[in-house]
Write a structure and sequence with these properties.
The protein is built from seven helices and 14 strands. The protein is of the alpha+beta class.
Amino acid sequence: MALALETISDTYDRDGFVFPIDAVSAAEATALRADLEAAEAELADDPERLALLRSYPDRLLPSFDALVRNPNLISAASEVLGPDLMVWSSGLFIKEANSPKIVSWHQDLTYWGLDNADETTCWVALSNADEASGCMKFVPGSHKANLVPHVDTFDENNLLTRGQEVAVDVNEEDGVAVELKPGQSSMHHGHLFHASGPNTTDDRRTGSAIRYIKTSMKQRTDDKMLVALVSGEDRYGHFTIADTPKGRLLAEDFERCHADAMIKRRVLYEGADTSKAKRY
């Protein structure tokens, strides 16, 4: 049974996460996955645009734009951030069948260049996410530690931008496995310690990490990154508000995403060797 929305705020404040949240039906999740995989097939011979699709699905596919505006997700995020919400990104995390790809223990907000922590990530499963397929693990209460030092590994099997991992010991036994069925979501704080293991199953594990922020947030560099205004109003003007896609995989939308990716690349890889970049 999904967690009642009225309990989200208290649980989130104590643990730094909540799950499962029923975002869309299993049938809707299957349709989203099918739309994504059809787009991947169409872009198979265009690696640059394929990479943009996986970083900006909501800006290139109307179905994923609708997902970030999903009322169940907006309601959950509003419980912890209030009514005025933007989506900073909604990148895909894909582990192919029988893949060694992992995500090391890390905190999301380490390298994003945002001016405070008014952010939450809703991770929506488009396929089964369990321990065998490499679901996320959360350390309850670790969001209260604020940001801790990280080291960059750029490990080829690490899905994170810099292969970053916390430079402190994490007891694996403290991690809670966040198992989700297709269409379900978890929600976690940007300071929460989390990680995930390899996919040992015969099906790819696919999820969209939708990063909701308050409209009052801004980049410390004053860059006006491309965002979607999904709830309430923007009274600050700190970001560039994207229009809803008027079609599927449109050239003009790829151009906007490419321009934004250049900004994100500079911000996310500040002080690092960008030749090793995995996203943007």
